[in-house]
TrEMBL record:
SUPFAM superfamilies: Uracil-DNA glycosylase-like, YjeF N-terminal domain-like. Residues 182-422 form the YjeF N-terminal domain. Binds 1 potassium ion per subunit. CDD domains: UDG-F6_HDG. Gene3D superfamilies: Uracil-DNA glycosylase-like domain, YjeF N-terminal domain. It catalyses: (6R)-NADHX = (6S)-NADHX; (6R)-NADPHX = (6S)-NADPHX. The gene is nnrE. (6S)-NADPHX binds at N255, N256, G257, G258, D259, D365. This is NAD(P)H-hydrate epimerase. K(+) binds at N256, D328, S368. One of its GO terms (molecular function) is nucleotide binding.
Length: 428
């Protein structure tokens, strides 16, 4: 390293803290690294495991954009900042810090019911103790650093060490909302900066994440023999694995289908081949953002995956034979009829037959054929092993007929919705 690279640089923090009146814990690093300053957000180095650790704590896919990362923090009532407002530092070397000036944590502590402070590493804990604790009167819990330099700590070990943070947080139970109230909620989320296209991206990624959990569990159980990394690596990024029988993803023509197209893109990118079944070519779809999402997915699928356009019943059955998982993204909240039109009725029957043969069926938002609002079930309705419902649960999922076809219900928390719930029409 040359003489100049050894010199300390004066750094001002420059990234606004994340918190609001619901924040319950305060997580503090030392100072944004050069990569974080470049990304204009905390823990921006792609190899830093902070976001993967938090996501794993809550069993969610790792957030990608700064907006998603902010949402994740606020949803879980976590405030995030750093101990220092400015210092002199060499690169990202905490050991080189001089002339340290602390941030005014009173800004957060006076606005939020912070129960506990956590420091992400030895340097932030030491500087917090010296520069902040006398003013805050709150002792901090020291957590291991998630930086790539802390290579001795594997991701699973970090996740275990961070569990006390999650244990401090009160759980948010999303309310059951009528379908028209979900539409209002979407509009409020969009007005606050997260559009339907971004929600669909998150929905599809969450679906892919749930599929991946099923696939990796099957490997652990010895049902699948493809060589994949162990399940505790679920948060890591793209990688390739030898192809097993592809996951079959059934996509309808509306935005429920869009969730399926996005899920296909992620699974393929993560190394899990897919067979996507659709009645309409991506370019002929009308609903947005489904059309844009489908075109993007179609263009990105690798050679191990394929799209079957209007396949025969025999081709559908062949795709399902031996498949580990079938994703039902045919009909979502837009369906409210007594009968399902062809070919979707036949595809639903094929999914249900495949489930009887052992294929795991995951429904996107709501099992197709079930009215998300009333819980009435069409003659042909998907029988799911699990349903990943988007943003909030809908009443139909809990009506007697609905509960019978949903399997295990999980809500995908696609956005920070608490600020928008006041006055929302809830079903229960
Ligand atoms: N809630 C959210 O914030 C998000 C929801 N997403 C997903 O979007 C769907 C709702 O999408 P929408 O386009 O409104 O409706 P659907 O896709 O459910 O259905 C419309 C589709 O279905 C066809 N159709 C209607 N009736 C029938 C019938 N009887 N037989 C056959 N086909 C029928 C219609 O022609 C349309 O093509 C929601 O469920 C979520 O999955 C976003 O992805 C993210 C945010
Ligand atoms: K569905």
């Amino acid at each position: 390293m040359g003489e100049r690279a050894q010199e300390r640089e004066h750094i001002e923090h420059g990234i606004a803290p994340v918190f609001d009146g619901r924040s319950e814990v305060l997580v503090l690093g030392t100072m944004p690294s050069p990569a974080s300053r470049e990304a204009a957000f905390f823990y921006g180095h792609p190899q830093n495991r902070f976001w993967r650790v938090l996501a794993a704590l809550f069993d969610e896919p790792a957030p990608v954009t700064n907006g998603e990362r902010t949402d994740l923090l606020l949803r879980h009532h976590i405030a995030l900042w750093d101990v220092l407002a400015s210092c002199d530092i060499r690169g990202a070397s905490d050991a080189s810090i001089a002339n340290a000036r602390p941030n005014d944590l009173g800004r957060i502590l006076s606005a939020a019911p912070i129960r506990r402070v956590f420091c992400t590493g030895a340097t932030s804990a030491r500087l917090y103790g010296k520069l902040c604790e006398p003013a805050t009167g709150l002792a901090a819990v020291k957590l291991p650093s998630t930086s790539p330099a802390n290579a001795a700590w594997s991701l699973p070990r970090l996740v275990e060490a961070y569990r006390p943070l999650a244990a401090e947080l009160s759980l948010f139970e999303p309310p059951v909302l009528d379908v028209p109230a979900v539409v209002d909620l979407e509009a409020a989320i969009a007005a606050a900066g997260t559009g339907l296209d971004e929600l669909m991206e998150r929905a599809g990624r969450f679906l892919a994440y749930e599929v991946r959990k099923v696939l990796e569990a099957r490997v652990m159980d010895g049902v699948e023999t493809v060589a994949v990394r162990p399940a505790d690596d679920l948060q890591t990024g793209p990688r390739r694995s030898p192809a097993g029988v592809p996951t079959v993803i059934f996509c309808g023509n509306g935005n429920n289908g869009g969730d399926g197209w996005v899920a296909a893109r992620y699974l393929d990118a993560w190394g899990f081949p897919v067979c996507l079944i659709t009645a309409t070519d991506a370019s002929d779809l009308v609903a947005e953002p489904a059309r844009t999402a489908a075109l993007r997915a179609q263009a990105s699928l690798g050679p191990a995956s394929r799209v079957l356009l209007s396949p025969s019943d025999a081709e559908v059955a062949a795709a399902l034979r031996g498949a580990p998982v079938a994703v039902d993204a045919l009909l979502g909240t837009g369906f409210a009829h007594r009968t399902v039109r062809a070919p979707f009725d036949r595809w639903i029957a094929a999914i249900n037959e495949a489930r009887r043969q052992g294929v795991f069926v995951l429904a996107a938002d709501v099992p197709s054929g079930l009215s998300a609002q009333t819980g009435e079930s069409a003659a042909t309705t998907v029988q799911a092993d699990a349903t990943l419902t988007m943003i909030v649960p809908k009443p139909g999922l809990f009506a007697p007929a609905g509960a019978a076809v949903c399997g295990f219900v999980r809500t995908a928390p696609l956005a920070y919705i608490e600020p928008f719930l006041k006055g929302a029409r809830t079903h229960l």
